[in-house]
């Protein structure tokens, strides 16, 4: 139950100022801090998937501004690279090519548009019935489980000029620094564990000769981001679109969280249909430039809860700074110089976290997973997704995460509710 408004005019004015949109220079430092908190995760996704980190900065800034425009500048969130799409992008680029994969990412944003229309038509309850935790939880788990071999390979494999032992030393230091930051740090430092882990891994990698500063020295200070245009490719679209199901449901959770933090019902005003639309447009626009899909960042929500200032204008400053940094050539060169084992160490905990998030959504739903209907849905999603089942017909292929997600939705729709099982 929400608290009644305070009758004191001064208190009412203070509460309004903390949540209403204001854009002024005095919020610039807070905007810079927000970008620093999101920075590690923001650039990690393009580095892992072969996309350009400068383009990711550009599209994160543009996406956040588009989101603010669609939602009327009412929600204090920052949009940036989505981890849910790492595996599909990696596999898509390998199988189809970058430009073709971008067409799939652009279509994923259009799925958000369709879902927002569906919410306006049938209400948010219909979407939650179509995509309950018994479907979305296992799909999220499949994403993390599919990525696990990639994390271990990056963390432990020897590379050109360094041994497996050196790789483990660097990845272990990055992982340990991240864990210690999460467990024992206080204040704003607790919000940037990825950044801390990357910096520690970078420094430890120096004595092993893993860091080459030549590209940084040769890179110009000012450079246009190297954008890539999408190329329509139906197999890529059908491969990636189902992955949008899980992030769309996570979007509900993110908006609920920031609503609780700011003590405002953003599901009602501006409405979940508008926030989902803003997220989808940001994702499609990012794909048009060659950037990764966008999503709302929970670490930014944590920062907002810490500073207790809910003015969305702070996110405008963060977006502007991200766009400006996209044109710094040396920054992109520095990000590309981060050793693979350092990133692998971070990914061990990040990809494991994705699995736990999926498990947690199942636990919180309170569903009996041994109930025949639920058992069938969860089992098929996990085995199809992790096992890598593929359905092919000529150039068309549907496999892995996308295939398991589609089967999960169909089974949830087609299977009748069964009575409680007897022991």
TrEMBL record:
It comes from the Bacteria. Its main location: membrane. Coiled coil: none annotated. InterPro entries: NCS2 (IPR006043), Xan_ur_permease (IPR006042). It is a multi-pass membrane protein. The chain crosses the membrane at residues 27-48, 105-124, 130-154, 166-185, 191-211, 314-335, 341-363, 375-391, 397-415. Keywords: Membrane, Transmembrane, Transmembrane helix, Transport. The keyword Ribonucleoprotein does not apply. Signal peptide: none annotated. It is found in: Membrane. Belongs to the nucleobase:cation symporter-2 (NCS2) (TC 2.A.40) family. NCBIfam families: ncs2. This is Uracil-xanthine permease family protein.
């Amino acid at each position: 139950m929400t608290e009644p408004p305070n009758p004191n005019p001064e208190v009412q004015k203070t509460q309004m100022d903390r949540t209403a949109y204001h854009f002024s220079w005095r919020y610039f430092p807070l905007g810079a801090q927000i970008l620093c908190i999101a920075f590690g995760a923001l650039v990690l996704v393009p580095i892992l998937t072969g996309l350009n980190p400068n383009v990711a900065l550009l599209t994160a800034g543009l996406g956040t501004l588009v989101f603010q425009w669609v939602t009327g500048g009412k929600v204090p969130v920052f949009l940036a690279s989505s981890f849910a799409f790492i595996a599909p992008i990696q596999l898509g680029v390998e199988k189809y090519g970058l430009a073709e994969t971008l067409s799939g990412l652009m279509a994923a944003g259009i799925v958000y548009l369709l879902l927002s229309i569906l919410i306006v038509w049938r209400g948010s309850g219909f979407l939650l019935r179509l995509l309950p935790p018994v479907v979305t939880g296992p799909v999220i788990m499949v994403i993390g489980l599919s990525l696990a071999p990639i994390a271990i390979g990056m963390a432990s494999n020897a590379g050109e000029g360094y041994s497996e032992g050196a790789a483990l030393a660097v990845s272990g230091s990055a992982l340990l620094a991240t864990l210690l930051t999460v467990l024992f740090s206080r204040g704003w430092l607790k919000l940037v564990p990825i950044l801390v882990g990357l910096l520690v891994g970078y420094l430890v990698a120096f004595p092993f000769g893993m860091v080459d500063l030549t590209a940084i020295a040769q890179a110009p200070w000012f450079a246009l981001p190297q954008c890539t245009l999408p190329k329509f490719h139906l197999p890529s679209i059908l491969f990636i679109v189902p992955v949008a199901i899980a992030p769309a449901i996570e979007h509900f959770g993110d908006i609920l969280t920031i609503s609780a933090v700011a003590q405002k019902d953003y599901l009602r005003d501006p409405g979940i249909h508008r926030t989902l639309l803003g997220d989808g447009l940001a994702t499609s626009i990012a794909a048009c430039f060659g950037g990764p899909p966008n999503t709302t960042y929970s670490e930014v929500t944590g920062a907002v809860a810490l500073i207790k200032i809910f003015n969305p204008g702070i996110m405008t400053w963060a977006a502007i700074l991200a766009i400006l940094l996209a044109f710094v050539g040396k920054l992109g060169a520095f990000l590309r110089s981060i050793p693979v084992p350092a990133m692998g160490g971070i990914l061990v905990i990040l990809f494991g976290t994705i699995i736990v998030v999926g498990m947690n959504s199942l636990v919180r739903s309170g569903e009996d997973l041994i109930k025949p209907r639920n058992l069938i849905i969860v089992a098929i999603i996990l085995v199809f997704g992790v096992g890598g089942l593929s359905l092919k017909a000529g150039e068309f292929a549907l496999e892995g995460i996308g295939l398991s997600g589609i089967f999960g939705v169909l089974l949830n729709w087609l299977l009748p509710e069964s009575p409680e099982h007897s022991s």
